[in-house]
């Protein structure tokens, strides 16, 4: 008797041929790739070195092919302008947003994502990232069976906006990688730590809500997220961060400290010498991970200097960076409506959290020893690999449901320049929200849908994401048309906005893909300005809404007078016109009390007019109808 080979749905027709999903941590300073094999997530090592971390560096020589990783890193000191590091900091951002220090010559319009001017011509941050991703995929395909890789889950900082996420997907596409999902780095870390699995000694742990804070400080980005686990649902309650803050900043601070110790002004040091000193500063910083002090020996502008760098010195040097991270933690705790005592655990992620000065600051701030039992460099890639495995196989040993959130509120512009929020910040994604709007003027056959992002009440204080037009609205009286607007965010954080007129089903939509991302200053302003100006915005919104409503009332009365003036005597028409004029005059001011007073004065007259119109309509509809018909 022969056996018939079968396969489960979504599985390979040949069971011995496995399909793999990669987990890629595209880091600012170092990147790596992981995969699940034999049920366990593991980081894939390079063929020529036991070090699993690939430096996120690409070198563009005057001749020959670009070099990636360690081969590129060797050229950083002697040719910094052609050795691109921390390209992630430039992803999805305009040239005007690039305010941090760097040695590169940038090209392009100030409102567009810049390109690096290299010996091989201009290259974009997307192209640089694509080469890094291609090197990681090559590492994976060399270690796995031929044609077994189905795609990859690529991690991004939780605070990446739409433009930065889109730039990451573009880089993957350029590298020939099928993106299964973009996953927030803190969420990936939570998956790796298995936070969905209750402690064995906990009582009724399946019904207990657990709160975790993920503190992710990498080489060039910082993210912090608060996660809640309840009955198998793993939800991101709040998130925050800074896409241009990390260990690189501490390296620069240490470099400047070293230069000043040599009695030299950092401005007088060449980029070449600074690059060499930065490498030394990083070594000294890493040495202090296990030592209390380190001897320093540097050359600044051809002058030698020897000294000592102590743990206390590094604590003071890194203080500006560590304090900035803690201010973000404070804001995220407020957003989640929690205190530090509500947290079950604080988890450290990112290579920079190896530093004792960071661990000490975090422990002191939260009054809790943070968790760092997993390699902080690898934990994000491991979590991404587990997620990719679940997406590829459709098989999971646990019941974890991941709910990421959108970091900023999304809405559209309404009359008076007000923002109508459809998706508030920290809403779990994927999400779809609908809301019905109507026309402002009689006979209106089109409208512009203006999509905005931010925390303020007025459009001028928020960021514009895009506009599109909807035509084909049937000409009706103001307020009768029904336009359904839908905001949809997928699992990758991609926003799509559509509008449909419900009678004719006329529809239009836009996929929001901005050409550049938010600067650090803009992000901070959008997040904090809403709190700072809350009372002011509330009063401004009240005034605008009152004026818009009054203007609509005036338009409606003027339209009614044109059609039903015969229902009023000449004296009544003059009296109504007088009150309408008084309200119009009040609308020219910004005095809310005056506008409300004139509205109240007009109301008895407009109500009486509306009652006569209604009576006439009822009489007309009842004409020729007998009681027997009822």
Keywords:
630 residues; alpha+beta; Nucleotidyltransferase, domain 5; Substrate Binding Domain Of DNAk, Chain A, domain 1; Substrate Binding Domain Of Dnak, Chain:A, Domain 2; 3 domains; six-stranded mixed beta sheet; 25% strand; disordered N terminus; coiled coil; HSP70_peptide-bd_sf; hydrolase
Describe, in short, the structure shown.
With 630 residues, the protein is of the alpha+beta class.
How much helicity do the residues have? 25-40%
In the residues, how many domains can be counted?
Answer: 3
**Termini separation:** 81 Å
Tell me which CATH architecture of the largest domain applies here: 2-Layer Sandwich
User: How confident overall, as mean pLDDT?
Assistant: 80
Outline type? elongated
Number of helices: 13
Structural class: alpha+beta
- The share of residues in extended strands comes to 25-35%
Q: Which regions are unreliable across 5 or more consecutive residues at pLDDT < 50? A: 1-15, 201-206, 513-527
CATH superfamily of the largest domain: ATPase, nucleotide binding domain
Q: What is the number of strand segments?
A: 28
GO molecular function: hydrolase activity
Protein name: Chaperone protein HscA homolog
Family: Belongs to the heat shock protein 70 family.
Keywords: ATP-binding, Chaperone, Coiled coil, Hydrolase, Nucleotide-binding
């Amino acid at each position: 008797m022969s056996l018939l080979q079968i396969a489960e749905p979504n599985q390979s027709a040949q069971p011995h041929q496995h399909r793999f999903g990669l987990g890629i941590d595209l880091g600012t300073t170092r990147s790596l790739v992981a995969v699940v094999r034999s049920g366990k997530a593991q980081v894939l090592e390079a063929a020529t070195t036991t070090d699993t971390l690939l430096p996120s560096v690409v070198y563009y020589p005057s001749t020959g092919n670009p070099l990636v990783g360690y081969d590129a890193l060797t050229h950083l000191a002697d040719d910094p302008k052609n050795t691109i590091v921390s390209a992630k900091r430039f992803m999805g951002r305009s040239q005007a947003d690039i305010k941090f220090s760097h040695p590169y010559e940038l090209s392009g319009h100030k409102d567009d994502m810049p390109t690096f001017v290299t010996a091989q011509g201009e290259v974009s941050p997307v192209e640089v990232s694509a080469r890094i991703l291609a090197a990681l995929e090559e590492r994976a395909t060399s270690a796995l069976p031929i044609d077994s890789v189905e795609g990859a889950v690529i991690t991004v900082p939780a605070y990446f906006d739409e433009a930065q996420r889109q730039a990451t997907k573009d880089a993957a596409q350029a590298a020939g990688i099928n993106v299964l999902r973009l996953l927030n780095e803190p969420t990936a870390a939570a998956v790796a730590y298995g936070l969905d699995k209750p402690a064995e000694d906990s009582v009724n742990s399946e019904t207990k809500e657990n709160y975790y804070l993920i503190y992710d400080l990498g080489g060039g980005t910082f993210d912090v997220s608060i996660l809640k686990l309840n009955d198998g649902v793993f939800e991101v309650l709040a998130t925050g961060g800074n896409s241009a803050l990390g260990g690189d900043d501490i390296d620069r601070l240490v470099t400047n400290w070293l230069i000043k110790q040599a009695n030299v002004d950092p401005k007088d040091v060449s980029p070449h010498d600074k690059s060499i000193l930065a490498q030394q500063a990083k070594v000294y910083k890493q040495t202090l991970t296990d030592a209390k002090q380190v001897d320093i020996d540097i050359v600044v502008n051809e002058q030698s200097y020897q000294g000592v760098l102590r743990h206390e010195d590094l604590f003071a040097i890194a203080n500006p960076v560590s304090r900035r991270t803690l201010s973000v933690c404070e804001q995220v705790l407020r957003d989640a409506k929690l205190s530090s005592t509500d947290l079950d655990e604080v988890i450290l992620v990112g290579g920079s959290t190896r530093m004792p000065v960071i661990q000490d600051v975090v422990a002191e701030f939260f009054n809790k020893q943070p968790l760092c039992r997993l390699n902080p460099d690898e934990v994000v890639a491991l979590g991404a690999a587990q997620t990719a495995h679940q997406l590829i196989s459709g098989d999971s040993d646990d019941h974890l449901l991941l709910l990421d959130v959108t970091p900023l509120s999304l809405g559209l512009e309404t009359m008076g320049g007000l923002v109508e929020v459809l998706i508030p910040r920290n809403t779990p994604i994927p999400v779809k929200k609908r809301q019905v709007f109507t026309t402002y003027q009689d006979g209106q056959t089109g409208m512009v849908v203006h999509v905005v992002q931010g925390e303020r009440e007025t459009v001028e204080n928020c960021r514009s994401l895009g506009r599109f037009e909807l035509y084909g609205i049937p000409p009706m009286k103001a307020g009768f048309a029904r336009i359904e607007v839908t905001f949809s965010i997928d699992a990758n954080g991609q926003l799509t906005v559509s509008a449909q007129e419900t009678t004719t089903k006329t529809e239009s939509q836009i996929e929001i893909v901005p050409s550049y991302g938010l600067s650090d200053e803009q992000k901070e302003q959008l997040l904090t300005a809403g709190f700072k100006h809350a009372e002011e915005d509330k009063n401004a919104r009240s005034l605008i809404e009152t004026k818009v409503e009054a203007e609509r009332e005036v338009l409606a009365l003027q339209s009614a007078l044109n059609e039903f003036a015969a229902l009023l005597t000449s004296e009544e028409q003059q009296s109504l016109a007088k009150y309408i004029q008084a309200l119009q005059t009040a609308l020219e001011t910004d005095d809310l009390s005056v506008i409300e007073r004139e509205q109240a004065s007009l109301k008895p007259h407009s109500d009486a007019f509306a009652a006569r119109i209604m009576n006439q309509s009822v009489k007309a509809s009842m004409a020729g109808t007998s009681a027997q018909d009822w």
